[in-house]
Design a protein that fits this description.
Length: 149
């Protein structure tokens, strides 16, 4: 489990409790390097989490799809793969932390935009300008590719 602040691998669990949903364990962790504390929601099986799209269709939560969209937004922006991975893990934890069986795609899009805004305004604008007219992160990735050509 990586620290979302400094990306160190060395963290310790300071508190642990089961959430209402028995398959989710909430852990309070502390980074041994920067001493920041953060909460993780760890679930054994995530395959059943469904994303509800704008048109009402549902599809399984797919981390790779989110990654594709974010990687596209950061194209040629000098952001490291590690930073991107940490960002995705953070988003994933937020999504899973809701503990709901279904999640709106626009909630995920909003999480992505919040993080991009903080890290790189250019990536944010790229993402926001294209993503807002899409409901789908993979469609977004395709669109960014076209823009860059
Ligand atoms: Zn840290």
């Amino acid at each position: 489990m990586k620290c979302p602040y400094c990306l160190s691998d060395e963290t310790k669990v300071v508190d642990k409790r089961e959430t209402n949903e028995s398959e989710v364990t909430r852990r309070r962790r502390e980074c041994l390097k920067c001493e920041n504390r953060f909460t993780t929601y760890e679930r054994i099986e995530m395959a059943d989490l469904m994303v509800v799209k704008k048109d009402g269709r549902r599809e399984a939560f797919d981390r790779d799809k989110i990654k594709k969209g974010i990687v596209s937004a950061f194209q040629k922006r000098g952001v490291s793969a590690e930073q991107i991975d940490a960002m995705i893990s953070d988003i994933e934890l937020k999504v899973k932390g809701k503990g709901a069986p279904e999640i709106q795609s626009k909630f995920i899009g909003g999480l992505v935009m919040n993080r991009l805004k903080r890290v790189d305004p250019v990536a944010y604008i790229r993402f926001a300008s294209v993503y807002k007219s899409f409901d789908d992160l993979s469609a977004f990735a395709e669109e960014i590719k076209k823009i860059d050509k």
